[in-house]
Design brief:
InterPro entries: FUC_metazoa-typ, GH, Glyco_hydro_29, Glyco_hydro_29_N, Glyco_hydro_b. By secondary structure, the protein is α/β, with parallel strands linked by helices. The chain is about 30% helix and about 20% strand. The protein has two domains: about 25-355, Glycosidases (TIM Barrel), CATH 3.20.20; about 370-440, Golgi alpha-mannosidase II (Immunoglobulin-like), CATH 2.60.40.1180.
């Protein structure tokens, strides 16, 4: 009974610590939230020593590689062909407005010149501060930079690995020191927000390591993450910096946008979803094949069409799309990804006005497609051939249409509005292979 009481007390204290923060975002933060929603499309980059092994970013955990053995990668990880200009150019040409980069993933390796760890990029043969070069190029090209930062660590002994779900086979025996680990994270976050110019946001990951399972949608955790202090620290250093946490939960106080992993908001095909959708800006992330980090055997590339459809569907639900690349160990992005991103960029160059700056949830998704909207202009995206190819039906549409036409040709389309919904007639319309877009001017 005493043990149960202590557990309940600890949970109550943890919950209180998380919820105690009375967070009021600055005007600049609110402005950045709106710009984030307008940007709609970003590049996720997973890169680190694991790229050398070519088997994804979880290889240390999945193959139970010991810290001492994994640490040898510092002598072979040398992204000599890394060029920040090329990375940023690829993102920009694809129509992406921001980059989220793994400054530190679960293997604990820092892709920046931290003073708090020797396990870092500047101690490799590469020697350079990769993050600094990327940050400088992003700032030069008007691309916002977000920093992915792992909460869990498979190499540090002060991380409370004893209660974590992952990293059990990495050979740590020293007793953890949680308060030391929290100080370490605060120190590194201070470095990131002090030494690399304006940071668009901090993207946390790993909270779930201290939960029993991903179906637990409560705030209960085996550790106190000190989010109250950490979020206050971030907003004190850069008040306009956005915070998100891939904890697979409904956002808590101090967070500025809600992240979804490999699922659209409201979906749960992976087991990571199921949390309620908040009123904050939303973002969903997905891979171009089935891997986040470089995986030499993963040839399950998603098609350009499927990725554009994912972007459209995300926008229709008021969410951004963060599309991942895992560069190869030499620092270059593999050609299959580059080619697909070029093709997406061509489509965005032609149709980006139906994505950028739009808002979603104006109408429920239909069998044939979805809607995005910008003020009094609605865009119906026909991404599946309708059952009746001579019209589409929009049930329960109450808004009055002034004008309706095909976006690419500006051909005007006839429509009929009735109490049960709206018919838009498609006689003679040739459907696009990816997306037939109808523009509607609303009264």
């Amino acid at each position: 009974m005493k043990k149960i009481t202590l557990c309940l007390l600890f949970f109550s204290m943890s919950l209180t610590a998380i919820m105690a923060q009375n967070y009021t975002p600055t005007e600049g933060n609110l402005k950045n939230r709106k710009e984030f929603q307008d940007d709609k499309f970003g590049m996720f980059i997973h890169f680190g020593p694991y790229s050398v092994l070519g088997n994804g970013e979880w290889i240390m955990n999945n193959q139970n590689i010991k810290v001492t053995e994994y640490g040898r990668l510092i002598n072979v990880f040398n992204p000599q062909d890394f060029d920040a200009k090329k990375w940023v150019s690829i993102a920009k040409s694809a129509g992406m407005k921001y980059i989220t980069f793994t400054t530190r993933h679960h293997d604990g390796f820092s892709n920046f010149d931290t003073k708090l760890s020797d396990w870092k990029i500047t101690n490799t043969h590469f020697k350079r501060d990769l993050l600094k070069e990327l940050a400088d190029e992003c700032h030069k090209e008007g691309i916002k930079l977000f920093c992915y930062y792992s909460l869990l660590d498979w190499t540090r002994s002060d991380y409370q690995y004893e209660t974590g779900k992952t990293g059990k086979g990495t050979g740590r025996t020293q007793k953890s020191d949680w308060e030391s680990y929290i100080r370490f994270m605060k120190g590194q976050l201070t470095e990131l927000l002090t030494n690399y110019g304006e940071i668009g946001g901090i993207w946390f990951d790993g909270h779930w390591d201290q939960l029993d399972n991903d179906t637990d949608k409560t705030l209960q955790s085996k550790v106190n993450w000190h989010y109250d202090d950490i979020y206050k620290l971030i907003h004190s250093l850069q008040p306009n910096c956005l915070i998100s946490n891939n904890h697979h939960l409904t956002p808590i106080q101090g967070e500025d946008f809600q992240a979804f992993e490999k699922d659209l908001p409201g979906g749960n095909s992976t087991g990571f979803g199921g949390q309620s959708v908040s009123q904050l800006p939303l973002e969903t992330c997905e891979t171009m094949n089935n891997s986040w980090g470089f995986n030499i055997n993963d040839r399950k590339y998603k098609s350009t069409k499927d990725l554009i459809h994912y972007l459209i569907n995300a926008a229709s639900l008021n969410a951004n799309f963060l599309l991942n690349v895992g560069p190869m160990a030499d620092g270059t992005i593999q050609p299959e990804f580059v080619e697909t991103l070029k093709e997406i960029g061509v489509w965005m160059g032609k149709n980006g006005n139906t994505i950028y700056g739009t808002r979603g949830n104006v109408m429920k998704p239909q069998d044939w497609g979805v809607f995005t909207a910008k003020d009094k202009t609605w865009f119906a995206h026909i991404i599946k051939t309708p059952n009746q190819t001579d019209y589409i039906f929009i049930p329960e549409m109450k808004q009055k249409i002034k004008k309706c036409y095909l976006m690419d040709s500006k051909k005007e389309l006839k429509f009929k509005q009735q109490p049960e919904g709206t018919f838009v007639y498609l006689n003679g319309v040739k459907f696009d292979a990816i997306d037939t877009i109808i523009e509607m001017q609303i009264q």
